[in-house]
Design a protein that fits this description.
The complex is a heterodimer of chains A (227) and B (456). Chain A has two domains: 116 residues, Response regulator (Rossmann fold), CATH 3.40.50; 95 residues, Winged helix-like DNA-binding domain superfamily/Winged helix DNA-binding domain (Arc Repressor Mutant, subunit A), CATH 1.10.10. Chain A is 40% helix and 22% strand. Chain A is built from eight helices and twelve strands. In chain A, the strands form three sheets. Chain A has a five-stranded parallel sheet with strand order 2-1-3-4-5, sandwiched between helices. In chain A, strands 6-7-8-9 form a four-stranded antiparallel sheet, covered by helices on one side. The termini of chain A are far apart. With 456 residues, chain B is an alpha+beta fold. In chain B, α1 packs antiparallel against α2 and α1 runs antiparallel to α4. Chain B is rod-shaped, with a radius of gyration of 50 Å. The two termini of chain B are 45 Å apart. Classes of the chains: A alpha/beta (227), B alpha+beta (456). Chains A and B meet through α1 of A and α5, α6, β6, α7 and α8 of B.
């Protein structure tokens, strides 16, 4: 299956090499040199996924990420040379679904893109999951609280479904990382931490004192179904 | 040579002040005691002597006139219940007042009286302190003895001494308390300094000393703060530099590894010598990329920045996870129940486990057993291989950076970055643990990582 990718990267060599390698992996690659160009392109045509460098001249990656998130839930993978926790977290907080650090191989990136896009059609079952006043419909990908739709990104939604499907049991961090991000994850906890935080902001009445998405110290997370 | 004091500076100040105060007050107390007690004693003795002199004149008069009322006179002369008058006459002793056995009186005193020499002496008679005055009788033979009680004076002395001792002790204690308080007050800036310094040592580079109002302390605060400023600047600069280096190295590497991937995929299109060169290039690019990433990681660990808050991690689960996500045959895993938890950073521990497994793959044909055990409050990870083993003299060296090739059977096409075990050592050390190599029973090497167990 051919996916279309928008590669936003200011370094010309990287853009070319990554473009060639991703093309070999079977993706249709469009590229943009700057944040402005990326936003212009996205206004015209929407790719399946955006690969976004954080350090861009002009409108930087974080800004692009926030703008795209405000527009919708287009999947975004951050491609960064900065490995500091603060940069990664800022990117994820800005709404990215995943991140990879340079130097990355196109094959690894391809696996991640496929995993991310597989999350798209989550129509595994047409039952309605209920937890803590939330009504989750995996078949249509919607979450309602008291009749009002709660808007989640795909990754947040998938995370919530995984937790809700466990019907109150603990789901370990590793299980979540594998099931939601879909690949063998190399122990980085920031990705999950930030997504849990983002999810809580959207579904918890008081995100500072979570009553629904509970942390089980040393084990993982648990959805308080009765709460 | 520095001498290590058993007591803190504050306590030493307190004790010196306490001791000084104790010495001064006790000296004053001794002087006061001597002056006061001497004076009062002299006063009392003089008044006793005067009284006795008056009395003895009356007795003498009575004896001279041969009056019969001697007994009544003696009774009349005894001033109080504790006063005793003894009149020694040849073959007769007249007593009046408090009854006292004449034998209790010192012979010498009586002899002096009989010989016509007036004398006085402090005595304790029947449990009461008295001043005995003996006076000659002018017109008859014998001696007159009058014993004036000193109970009142004795009580006063006792009270005075109690007051003086109490005052001395109190002043010593007050000295200690004052010294302790003054010491603490004087050392307060030092406490602040210690706090600020330990904050900085703990990574908070923005910690500073507050402005000091005391001119003695201003230079210290200024020096400390400017040192801290310089340190902060330097650390920020270093971090920025490391970030720049990281970025500058990672960018071309990204181009290189992806270009290499394209080349590898299209290897068939490049025949002959050029093809061989491409093979060499692509494999070296991969190794180079791994090395740079490891190098960046090791330098990042050196800098001690970028640490997530430690969390409690089930080591068995973490190891299981690493093993199951690795390609190839599963290594048998042995786990103690309940499995040990450690406090730390998941990513680094993942790295430790997978680097040890990589190492076994690379040098010993793969791990044959992995164990997660608990030993005396420490979590213990064992990775066994059935390879050639590591000679004892290399067992610490292999954990040094870029130490490789010294082990048998290495240096194939897939050599590591030369930093894998160094990273293991560094990450383990950061978790307060140790890593070492032993001989595996039955041949091969056993890598042992021990990390303190977390409280549950």
């Amino acid at each position: 299956m051919d996916f279309s990718v928008l590669l936003v990267e200011d370094d010309e060599h990287i853009r070319q090499a990554l473009g060639l390698a991703l093309g070999d992996e079977g993706f249709t690659v469009t590229d943009a040199v700057s944040g402005e160009e990326a936003l212009d392109l996205l206004a015209v045509a929407e790719p399946d996924v955006v690969l976004l460098d954080l350090m861009l001249p002009g409108v930087d990656g974080l800004e692009v990420c926030r703008t795209l998130r405000a527009r919708g839930d287009l999947p975004i993978i951050i491609v960064t040379a900065r490995t500091d926790a603060s940069d990664v977290i800022a990117g994820l907080e800005a709404g990215a679904d995943d991140y990879v650090t340079k130097p990355l191989m196109a094959s690894v990136l391809a696996a991640r893109i496929r995993a991310l896009l597989r999350r798209r059609g989550t129509g595994r079952h047409d039952e309605v999951l209920k937890a803590g006043g939330l009504e989750i419909r995996p078949d249509v990908g919607s979450v309602h609280r008291a009749g009002v739709e709660v808007h989640l990104t795909r990754t947040e939604f998938r995370l919530l479904v995984e937790l809700a499907s466990a019907s109150g049991r603990i789901v370990t961090r590793e299980q979540l990382l594998q099931r939601v991000w879909g690949y063998d994850y190399f122990g980085d906890t920031r990705l999950l931490d930030v997504h849990i935080r983002r999810l809580r902001r959207k579904v918890e009445p008081n995100p500072d004192e979570p009553a629904l998405v509970l942390t089980v110290r040393g084990a993982g997370y648990r959805l308080d179904v009765d709460g | 040579m520095t001498r290590v004091h058993r007591f803190s500076l504050r306590w030493r100040v307190a004790m010196v002040l306490g001791l000084g105060s104790l010495l001064l007050t006790s000296a004053v107390a001794v002087v006061v005691w001597n002056l006061a007690s001497g004076y009062m004693l002299r006063q009392r003795e003089q008044s006793a002597v005067r009284q006795a002199q008056v009395n003895v004149r009356l007795v003498d008069e009575a004896l001279r006139t041969g009056s019969d009322g001697l007994d009544e006179l003696l009774t009349g002369l005894t001033a109080g219940p504790d006063t005793t008058i003894l009149l020694f006459r040849p073959g007769q002793v007249l007593t009046s007042g408090r009854q006292v056995d004449p034998d209790q009186l010192p012979r010498k005193l009586l002899d002096l009286g009989r010989d016509g020499i007036p004398a006085g002496q402090r005595l304790i008679v029947s449990g009461i302190p008295v001043y005995a005055v003996t006076l000659p009788i002018a017109h008859a033979e014998g001696a007159y003895v009058e014993m004036a009680p000193m109970v009142q004076l004795d009580r006063t002395f006792r009270f005075l001494s109690a007051v003086l001792v109490a005052a001395t002790v109190a002043s010593g204690l007050l000295g200690v308390a004052l010294g302790s308080w003054a010491g603490r007050r004087a050392l307060r800036p030092l406490t602040q300094l210690t706090k600020a310094a330990s904050l900085i040592a703990g990574g908070d580079l923005r910690a500073r000393l507050p402005e000091q109002t005391d001119p003695d302390l201003t230079p210290l605060a200024t020096t400390f703060n400017s040192t801290a400023d310089a340190l902060e600047q330097r650390v920020l600069r270093d971090a920025r530099f490391a970030g720049d280096v990281s970025h500058e190295l990672r960018s071309p590497l990204t181009t290189m590894v992806n270009a290499a991937e394209v080349l590898r995929r299209r290897r068939a299109e490049i025949p002959g010598t050029a093809g061989k060169a491409v093979d060499l290039l692509t494999s070296e690019v991969d190794r180079f990329a791994r090395m740079v990433v490891d190098l960046l990681e090791i330098s990042r660990t050196d800098q001690q920045v970028d640490d997530p808050t430690p969390e409690s991690i089930d080591l068995a689960e973490l190891v299981t996870n690493v093993i199951t996500t690795r390609p190839g045959a599963q290594v048998p895993l042995e786990v103690d129940e309940p499995p040990p938890h450690v406090l730390g950073d998941r990513r680094r521990l993942d790295r430790v486990v997978s680097n040890l497994l990589d190492n076994a793959d690379r040098h010993a044909g793969g791990a044959v057993r992995v164990a997660v055990l608990r030993r005396d409050g420490r979590a213990r990870l064992e990775v066994d291989d059935a390879g050639p083993g590591v000679p004892p003299d290399l067992r610490t060296r292999v954990f040094e950076r870029f130490d490789r090739g010294t082990r048998a059977g290495s240096r194939g096409t897939d050599t590591g970055s030369g930093l894998g075990l160094a990273l293991v050592a560094q990450h383990v050390q950061r978790h307060g643990g140790t890593v070492r190599i032993e001989e595996r029973p039955g041949g091969g090497a056993r890598f042992i990582v021990e990390i303190p167990e977390a409280e549950r």
